[in-house]
Amino acid sequence: MQSINKEREISFRDICLAESDKREVERLLKISPHNPPQLEDIWMLMDKVWDEFGCDNRKPDWKNIRKFYSHPIWLLNGLFIEQHDLSMQRRNAISDWIDYNPSIRKILDYGGGFGTLARLINNKKPSLLVDIYEPHLSYYSRQKISDYPQIQFISKIKDRYDALVSTDVLEHVPDPLKTFEEMILSVKNNGYLIIANNFFPIIKCHLPQTFHLRYTFNIFAKLMGLVICGPLEESHATIFKKNSNKPVNWRIVRPLEKVSKGLFPFLQFSKPVLRPIYKFVKHEYSSR
Known about the structure:
Blueprint: H1 19-31, H2 39-52, H3 62-69, H4 73-81, H5 85-99, E1 106-110, H6 116-124, E2 129-133, H7 139-144, E3 151-154, E4 161-167, H8 176-185, E5 187-196, H9 213-223, E6 226-231, E7 237-242, H10 250-286
Parallel strand pairs: 1-2, 1-4, 2-3, 4-5
Antiparallel strand pairs: 5-7, 6-7
């Protein structure tokens, strides 16, 4: 069995890329400390491109940020994911869960960019219809799904789906709860949302204004009409079920969002202190 974090060489021999994209990816690979690049190298290259566009995650200029998300660094990231064992393990866990759920016939991959997860899902369940909503679509991503008639990229969300999957999207958007509402609205009642978030400062394009949701996202999911089914094993995703078509009560959600943001610095500071106390109390309680 291969090591979970083993990296393999990224090859362009069988990949049809625009010459400008190929040159840019090759430029980035020359900068990478390792060949093949490791996960930390990909993060470093993302930050480099972010800085080259003059992006600032504290004062976002969305004109520059849109250019960043259309840059070939995301092509390189997609190629890397498909040969990185931990990344593929997480996506296989999601696609397996969807495959085992017979009620899911049509799914939306929200921000599914490179189409890796959509192709995994369709390989396991060929009858499933998969729409990929991706605002920053590349020509190569379209090529990759050309042999998958059940998969299509969409520019607007018009249908209702049996399930939605979103991996590492909400930490990139300026208003994650509003985007989350859009996701919820696209799912049928009694449908599922499989959401994986990364509200941490791993890379510069993770917006600090979203980090408070690291502690409170599930609370907001409940307030927005979802039931928490639980974490999905072997992934960093959580499964939610939609059990109501009631609109989100923003008069409640927005003030609580401000509270969540206000509490975040305290939780950051107190967590290292409270963790051993929690473990001690839990141990004492369980030993009685």
